[in-house]
Amino acid sequence: MTIFVFDLVARQSDFLREQRVDQARELTEMLAVNSISGVLSDDLGGLAEIIKAQSHFHDVEYAMILSPSGKVLAHTDTAREGLYVSDKESRSILNDRSETTVLVNDTRLVDVAAPIHANQQLIGWARVGIKQDAIASGLRTAARNGIFYTIAAIGVGILFAFFMAKGLTRGIQHIVGVTERTRAGERQVRASLKREDEIGVLGHNINTMLDALEQNEAQIKLAKTQLTAALSEHETILQAIPDIVFTLDMNGNLVKWNKALELATHFTAKELSNRRAVSFFPENEHEKMSAAISQALTNQEVEVEGHLVTKDSEKILYEWKGVPLFDSNHKVVGVTCAGRDITSRAAKESAEQANQAKSEFLSSMSHELRTPMNAILGFSQLLESDSENRLTPEQLSFVEEILKAGHHLLDLINEVLDLSRIEAGKMTLSMEPVELDSLVADCITIVEPMASQFNISLNVDVQNLAYVHADRLRLKQVLINLLSNAIKYNTPRGQVTVFCTDEENGDLKLCVSDTGIGIPQEKRALVFQPFERMGAEQSTVEGTGIGLTISKRLANMMGGDLDYESHTGQGSTFWITLKRDTLQELPKSQDSIPASTDAEASQSAPKLTILYVEDNPSNIQLMLKILARRERVELLVAENGTHGIAIANSRKPDIILLDINLPDMDGYKVLEQLRANADTRNTPILAISANAMPRDIEKGMSAGFHAYLTKPIQVTHLLAAIDAVTPKMFSEAP
């Protein structure tokens, strides 16, 4: 009887181990199939996800993906990724095997390796190790119980042999039947022995092992489902990306590709099969692209730009990258290529180069045109004002026409140059609080002669103390353009009105309204187009057709907008919307020195002379208020660079405060001329500008400014900067 029990246990052991080997084979081969795409594309992240799915099967001790050379591409123990295997089992498959192999099959572990093939080429190995502890434990328990109960049965079996023999035989036969049915593939069958003897215990243990086997198979099935889902997701992502991905063999023929290649070339999968890669490129690029493929085949990564030729002979510019593909002996067997459409990028770069060339041409032409224009206008003015050799009235009218045409051409040159600077991104703005009262007054003064010439009345209704955040010079340019248009295109004895309104979002709308002929609705799309005069070129009214284009773009650069409304026969209203701003209030400073009440001391002490070169009246007013708190300070003001240089040369100030954005020249040119003069070469010069980017400050300090202060002015910083460069004789004066 003992021999029979051991034989039964041995048969069950063989069966369960055979089942475990089959499970390991099936799981390993499934892992190998699911890993093909990831190994081909060197997608280590995808391989890691596939390996991670093995953890759902609790009896898997390890799982790994190896390259043909033995490098660990993915492992359940991530610390081993990137290393090379060196055990004898691994060496045995790496040397000369190419079929599924059971490397280990003992009481502790089943280790199976399956080859990963693509296009009949070995590209790697999949290995899975499954523990056999549960089977061994169950068999040992069954064997112990069998021996124990067999010995017990021998002790008492003599007395009950006859009565027990029939029952024992029936139970063992039932267990044998369960085993055979399990071997045949039934997984739900169980031993149904309601007895407490050794046969019942053996049946119970067998049922426990069958439960574990069913659970393991369910987990394997779940792992297969998850692996398939992960592979499907990975493949879906690969097929969905817009970049082209494909592999070539050593002859440069297509082996595998994603959907993007079919979409880009309009070829079907059948037409692409085994197609030579160079056939996708123009003939004049065959040599370059063949060289790139050959370079990749010599174990080098390569990047190159080349046109892809579609089935319809369309050429599309792509950026290509190729990497070599290796076999198990680390020998290059092909190339994996990826391509990205860069047509739009190349077109953008070409457009930018063309725009840059246009801007440089316009800048050069502006210079070339200004030189002869200077002679034309200069000599015309000499002829007009020559008191010794007076011209006849007819000759004077000719000169007036020359001057008129010359100034018009000069305006055109300036406006074209402004437009090119804006389009090239080279127009810089000095954003600061701008008082509208004074700005509008300046503009009205400038256009009054034109208004008188056209017999147009000007009306102004601007809110007192209204400030906007803008570049004063450019806002003035926009307003003068709107006013001159309102005057030129008005009706005889018409009116032009300047007024302000508030927007719901808090912005301020500066409006210029006229009583002119109006703009037809069908021409609205043409209003802000460059060089578009909407039929006015047929009239006697002069113009360039780009003033409104420049004005709108300047308004946008200042954070606002330019728009209009018009009614034919009634007139038009153009407006610019801008952010409101406030003039900076002076804080109460404990560091400022109160004005002296000792008249004699004030008169006898030397005064610190400061020159402030600034064109914005609001900023000038603020500086006057700041320095009024300092004793013995005389502030000189120049509203442009030329005037500032003249005052500096004549008055020789102790300190110069210099704005960067001036009407006639920038602050850097002023600085250059002051440094070239021996009288002002060592004078401390402080930059004050709304250009507050770090690169602006670095540029200013590199140019030679003693300090670079940004707007809005911080009073304490300004006073500290002035104190830092104040000559010693003033700082020690009583």
Walk me through this protein's architecture.
By secondary structure, the chain is of the alpha+beta class. It has five domains: 2-183, PAS domain (Beta-Lactamase), CATH 3.30.450; 242-341, Beta-Lactamase (2-Layer Sandwich); 347-423; 431-578, 2-Layer Sandwich (Heat Shock Protein 90); 599-731, Response regulator (Rossmann fold, 3-Layer(aba) Sandwich), CATH 3.40.50.2300. Helix content is 49%, strand content 20%. The protein has 21 helices and 22 strands. The strands form five sheets. The chain has a five-stranded antiparallel beta sheet, sandwiched between helices. A five-stranded antiparallel beta sheet has the order 7-6-10-9-8, sandwiched between helices. Strands 12-14-15-17-16 form a five-stranded mixed beta sheet. The radius of gyration is 46 Å and the shape is elongated.
